[in-house]
Amino acid sequence: MITEGTFRRDLYHRLKVLYLKLPPLRKRTGDLSILMARFIQESEQPDVYIQPQVIEALSHYPWYGNVRELKNTVKYMLAVCDENEVSIDDLPSNSFFELSDYQKDQNQSDSSLEELGMDELILLKGIYALTRQGVTPSRKRLVEFAEASHTPLSEQQVRYRLEMLEEKGLVMKQKGRGGTKLTRKGYVAAEKLKLSLS
Q1: Which class would CATH give 24-88?
Q2: Are the beta carbons of 171 and 165 closer than 8 angstroms?
C-alpha cells in the first residue's frame, strides 16, 4: 500500500512498534501443553487433567489448522472425557484432523515397516511403548525393553539400529538426556506395528 501511495510511510513506522513472527504450531509442539492448559482454564471445566500420553500423541499431528485446530481438539476432548481426566482414549479419530500429509505418511510407513528387520521393529515398538508410558526412551531403557521382548541387544547394537531408524526418517535423537523421539512418520509406523501385533 505504501508503494501504491495509499498508505502513509510515516504512519506505518509509527504502528510497527513490535513485530512477532510465530512459527506454525507443528514446528513448536513444545507449546502444546501450555496452550492446552490455557484453553482448559478458559473452558467450563477448568480442573480437567490431561495425561502426558495425550500431549505426546498430539505432538505428532501436523496441525495445519494451527492453534485454532488445537483449540477445537481440546473442546472435543473435554466433551467426551470421563470425569476430570483426558486420556488417550479421548483423542479424536484421524478423520477429525486435516490430514493430507498424514495420509501420505501412512502410505510411506507401510513400505518403511517392510524394510525393517526384527531388531528395528522391536526398537520402534519400544520407543512407542515407553513414550506412551511417559518414560524417556534412552538407550539403556531400550536395551531393557529388547531383553524383555526376548531380543537381547547391546547398547552398541541399539545405537547402530537407532541410526538406521533415523536415516529412514522414523526417529530423531534428542540432545542430552532427551532420549529418542518418534517422528510423525515413525509414530504412524509404530501405530501400524501395534495393530499388526495385536
Answers
A1: mainly alpha
A2: yes
